[in-house]
Amino acid sequence: xxxxxxxxxxxxxxxxxxxxxxxxxxxxxxxxxxxxxxxxxxxxxxx
Length: 47
Prior knowledge:
- There is one protein chain.
- The protein has one helix spanning 35-38; strands at residues 20-22, 29-31.
- By secondary structure, the protein is mostly beta strands.
- It has one domain (1-40).
- The chain has a two-stranded antiparallel ribbon.
- The chain is globular, with a radius of gyration of 11 Å.
């Protein structure tokens, strides 16, 4: 199963770059190494 990487800023799907991903919606560039650091969950997690 393939995971879909989402833009940390606008939550749209990122392109398929192996090192640097780009968001076509907000024109943001995100390095693959930064995806985990900048990740914001789509839905809040109950505590």
